[in-house]
Every structure is written in C-alpha cells, then in structure tokens.
Amino acid sequence: MTARSHLSAGFLALFFVLLVIAVVGGFGFKTWLPPVASEHGAVVDKVIRYTLLTTGLVFVVGHLILAFFIVKYSRDERGTAKRLSPGVEARWALSVAFGMSIIAEVGVLVIGMPAWAAVYGEPSPDDVVVEVVAQQFGWFIRYPGKDGKFGACRPELIRRGDNPLGLDKKDPASADDIIVEDELRLPVNKPARIVLRSLDVLHSFSVPEMRVKQDIIPGYTGRTRFVPNREGTYEIACAELCGLGHYKMRGLLQVMAPQDLQRWLSEQVPAITYIVD
Amino acid sequence: MMKIWSDAWVQIVSGVFVALLLLGCSGGEEGDSGKEPDQETTSKRKAWDSALGTATVSGTVSFHGKPVPSRPVNLSKDAQCAKQHPDGLRDNSLVLNSDNTIQEVFVWIEKGLEGWKFPVPKEPVILSQLGCMYSPHVLGVMAKQPIQIRNDDSAVHNVHCLAKRSSKFNISQQTGATDTKTFKRPEVMVNLICDIHPWMSAHLGVLSHPAFSVTNDKGAFRITNLPPGKYTIAAWQDRYGIQKKEITVGDGESLTVDFTYPSAP
C-alpha cells in the first residue's frame, strides 16, 4: 500500500469512528431531553427524533458516496474519467434535493400536524385562560378571576409601584383580576391557553418539559396552548436574549390538582386593591 | 471605478455624511430638550448674594384618609435580596409615619428664584443601593452637581436613568462599584430604576437652586436662606404627584406651609 492509500484508509476509519459516536450519542438522546409533561409533548419528541434520523441518514449516505468518489478517482491524475453532461448532472442534483425535501418536510408535517393543531388550533371554551406578560426581567401572571374576563390594560396607567400592567380600575372586568409575579399555576389535565404580551422588548416563553416555546413580540398579543399532564414544578425560562438581566428572567410553573388551584386563587388579593386612583 | 473612488469629492461627501450621522446620534441622546434653549440658563441672572437669604419656609406633609395598601414585592428572583428582607418587602411609593405624616416628599421652590445664579456645590450627593433598595428613595440635587451612585449591596444592580432633559444612562454596577454622574438641566423628577430588580426606583429633583427639602420621619421639611419675595412652593409625592401653593415671605420671616395628600378632588 502506498502512503496515500494509508491516509485514505485512516480517514475512512476516523469517519466510521465518528459515525459510531454520533449514532450512539444521537440515539441515546432520549435522556438529553427533560421528561415530557404535556399531552402534545410526545409528538414534538417524535418530530425531533424523525428529523435527527432522516438528516443523519442523508448525512451518512451523502458522505459515503462522496468518500467513494474521492477514493475511486484519486489516482486518476490525468483526468481521463468520463464526465457527465450538464443536463444529467442537473437531473441528479435536483432529484436528490427533491427527495430530501420530501423526506424531511412532508415527514415532519405528517408527524407534527396534530401537535400544531393542539397548540395553535381553535381555542376551546373549556380552556383555562391565563395571561403571561413579559417585562425586563420577569413575568407577570394574570388570572381573569371568576368572571372569566380580563380587565382592560392601558399603557398610560402603568406605574411600577402599584399598577405594573396599567390595569384600568374603571373597567368592571378588572375587579377580580389577580396578578402575581413569576409563578404560573395551572391545573393538571386541563387545556391551558396562555395569552402572551410583552411590555418592552422581544421575549420568549419557554417551558422545556411542556415542549412549549413561543416568542413574545411587543405590541402583539400571542398565544400558546398545552395540556399539562403531570403535576410538579417546572422552570419557565426566557428563551430570547432580552438584555442585561436575561439570565434572571426565570419563573416557575406549578402544575397542581384543580381544587388546589381554586383554593390558592381564592386566597389571592385582587390586583385593584393596590392600585391608587 | 477606481478613479471615481480616489476622487476628492467622494471623500468630502462621505465626510459630510458621517458628520450628519454623528450629529443625528448626539441629538438623539440629549433628547428633545437639546434643541430648545433653557430659559433658566439663557436669561441674565445675578450672582447669588448669600446675605439676602434670611427667610425660612417650613412645614409638614400629611396624609388624609385611608391609604391604598402597598403592593407586596416578589423577592424570590434574587436570593441575595430575599435574605436581606426576611419579613418581605412592599412597594415604597408611600411611606407613612405613625402620625399619618408622609416621608420622602420632595418640596421645592418652583418659581421665584429665576433671577439668581447660585453656586453649584462641588461635594457630591450620595445615592446608595443597599438591601436591594435605593437609599434614599427621594433626593434633591442641583444641576451640574456631582451625584455619586454606589452599589453597597451584595447583589449586582444596574442604574437606568430615565431623564428627559439631561442625558440618559444605563450602567451596570458590581458590588462596591461607584459612578459619578451629573445632570445638565433642571428636571423634577428624574427617575432612576434597576431593570434587574423591578421594585427599585429612585426619584431625583434636579434644580438650578438649592431651595429644596425632602420630608423626614416626622413628615417635616425646611427650606432656608430664601430672599424675601413671592414664590410658588411645590411638593411632589411618588404616588399622588404635585401640589403647589403661592407664598410671600418677608425679610427674616419664618413661614409655615403645610401640604395634605391626596389633594381634594
């Protein structure tokens, strides 16, 4: 064997070692994701797994073909190999690209559509509606109270001390609104619709266990929806670098029995109690 | 193409463009007030004669009625802050004394001293961040007088100045950090906040004269060394805003003026 073929064999061996590491690591990824705690979460994991598998296969097969051609034609120093016509080359390239798109996009759509429909589909009247308002660097959580309606919020009424969301005291719907900071409580096994607003810059509402991550855009009311199906405490993180204190923008999601949530809500003081006229 | 780029006119045009850009940037930083002349600095003013300052205005600021309870502050996001307030913390926008007088009301002479040019003290006013609070919460300072902002806390803070008539700033301060700032123009009030701890807020009354006072733990204020004359005296309270009164003081007179919040509807 020549020194050159030794080098080729060495590269090939390295490729396979890396391949083994990637496959073992990749398929062991189940432990890398936090355990799912929402109904649609399993579908999200399926999409992640499918994407990893298909793109991984394309990567491996593509590189094997590339390696084959490199080895095969590496000794052809005079360039005598027969070249394909541009038309044939284009057909080959396009059919591979088209095939890859079908595998990746259609597969993800077919698997992921049920989760998309669950998160962004038509809201149901049974949804537990909670508003999450992001501000540098924290989360205000607003419950609509017994009337099920959120009171109007007006930017000109915002005061850091007593009225951080600018709640309009004159709106009858404001009377029983409850506002807390950084602690979101939701009932287990009930669909939660989260209304998302930002008071300043871009933020992103992310709860990894719920497989929920939704950007929040100032001036726009966004929403996300999920059904938490495991009681427990989960971290809400801001997933959009939003400024100096981004690292401190951490909240907690507590998923609890519905009667516990009702008891807790009944103990809370309505937000208008603290608002100065 | 190369020839065109080497031409002198290209350099001139790009130079003008950069200059305009810089001008635009600096204009933005100063805010709208950068364009309008400051009445107090442009008018002809006499140097202050301390021998004339013989009158005193003092009084008390009290609260009438039952105040709206203060919103509790959620300290859970910073263990360092929570440790310093084991009994919790509430919004400090209204600090009442046991006799229903109000602390931390800024009282100042709003009109009547425009004709004088007062010397600006060189010694700085100190604003400390301690216990995840601004201390003091309300203070007065003269325009161009240095203000020393210190972080005496174990937590990291940022000082975000929301001035409208002077330059804004936003500085991060580690434990033990000190920064000295000045405000170019008078403004009542300049709000300083900490974006990391949203309950932290300080209010600065920036004036072109030293005739101001902040009410103490008896709700009392005292403005001394006033020349005799007619004045508008004003009081600012964090929750309830500004009240004004017209007063006249004679040579060597001590006048008592009281304020009551909330003002009658």
Terminal Cα separation of chain B, in Å?
Answer: 73 Å
What is the total tally of β strands of chain A?
10
Main sheet characteristics of chain A: 5 strands, mixed
Radius of gyration over C-alpha positions of chain A, nearest whole angstrom: 27 Å
**Proportion in helices of chain A:** 25-40%
What is the oligomer described by this structure? heterodimer
SSE run of chain B:
HHHEEEHEEEEEEEEEEEEEEEEEEEE
How are the strands of the biggest sheet of chain B laid out side by side?
11-17-16-13-14
Number of helices of chain B: 4
At the first level of CATH, the class of the largest domain in chain B is Mainly Beta
Number of domains of chain B: 2
Mean pLDDT of chain A: 89
Q: What would the CATH topology of the largest domain in chain B be?
A: Immunoglobulin-like
Task: Name the chain pair whose interface involves the most residues.
Answer: A-B, 23 and 24 residues
Total helical elements of chain A? 4
Strand content of chain A: 15-25%
Counting helices, strands and paired strands, the structural category of chain B is mainly beta
Please summarize the sheet with the most strands of chain B. Answer: 5 strands, mixed
Strand tally of chain B? 23
Identify the strand order in the major beta sheet of chain A.
3-2-1-5-8
Summarize it.
By secondary structure, chain A is α+β, with helices and mostly antiparallel strands. Helix content of chain A is 37%, strand content 21%.
Summarize the structure in words:
The complex is a heterodimer of chains A (277) and B (265). Chain A contains four helices and ten strands. Chain A has helices at residues 3-27, 41-73, 86-120, 258-267; strands spanning 128-135, 138-143, 178-181, 183-187, 192-198, 203-207, 212-216, 222-226, 232-238, 250-256. In chain A, the strands form two sheets. In chain A, strands 3-2-1-5-8 form a five-stranded mixed beta sheet. In chain A, strands 4-10-9-6-7 form a five-stranded mixed beta sheet. In chain A, helix 1 (3-27) packs antiparallel against helix 2. The longest helix of chain A has 35 residues, at 86-120. Chain B folds into two domains: 2-32, no CATH class; 49-261, Sandwich (Immunoglobulin-like). Chain B is built from four helices and 23 strands. Chain B has helices at 2-6, 8-30, 39-42, 79-84, and strands at 46-47, 55-63, 72-73, 89-90, 95-96, 102-103, 106-111, 116-117, 125-130, 133-135, 138-142, 147-151, 157-161, 169-173, 178-181, 187-193, 201-207, 212-214, 220-226, 229-237, 241-249, 254-256, 259-261. A five-stranded mixed beta sheet of chain B has the order 11-17-16-13-14, with no helix packed on it. In chain B, strands 2, 19, 22 and 23 form a four-stranded mixed beta sheet that branches. In chain B, strand 5 (95-96) and strand 6 (102-103) form a beta hairpin. The interface between A and B is medium-sized, with 23 and 24 residues.
